[in-house]
Design brief:
By secondary structure, the protein is largely without helices or strands. Helix content is 9%, strand content 11%. The longest helix has 5 residues.
Length: 53
């Protein structure tokens, strides 16, 4: 079993926060760009507006 700190990480394209690999993303990890559905929905707002989580 791997520890969470040993899993791959990416930075969200919208909010800029790091997020960690999840089992449900196993087959599409190379295509994942957003940390959440909220960021995916707000992707068209660009970098001018940062999300407050």
């Amino acid at each position: 079993m791997r520890r969470k700190k040993d899993l791959p990480q990416k930075t969200c394209a919208v909010c800029g926060l790091p997020f960690t690999w999840r089992k449900k993303w196993e087959k599409v990890w190379t295509e994942v760009r957003y940390c959440s559905d909220r960021c995916r929905r707000n992707r068209n707002r660009g970098d001018t507006q940062k999300l407050v989580k």
